[in-house]
Amino acid sequence: MTDQVEIDYQQSYDQKSVLIIGAGPCGLSSLKYLSNMVNVICIECKEDLGGQWRQEKYTEETYPNLQNNAFYNQHGALQSSMYENLICDVPKSFMIFKDTPAKQEYGEFMTCQQFYQYLQDYSLKNDIKKKIVFKTYVQSVRLAVNLSEDEKNQVGFQISKKFLVQIVSNEDYTKNTRFLQADYVIVANGHNSVPNYPDIPNKNIFKAQMMHTHNYRENKTKVFQKKHLVIYGCGISSQDIVYILLKKTEEDQRPSKITMVGNQMMISLFKQTKSYLKEVESGILTFLSPCIKQFESENSLVLEDGHKVENIDIFMYATGYQYAFPFLDFEKDKLIDLYQKRGANYSLGPLYLRTFSVREPNLIFVGVLQQVLSSQQGVERQAILVSKVITDEIKLPTQQEMQEDFDKNYQEALTLYNDGNRYIRFSQHKGIDEFLFFRQISNLCGIPSDEEYNGYILKVLLPLYINAFLGNYPDLKQSNVSSQLPPGFFPKSGHF
Question: How far is residue 342's CA from residue 319's CA, in Å, rounded to a whole number?
Answer without folding.
Answer: 12
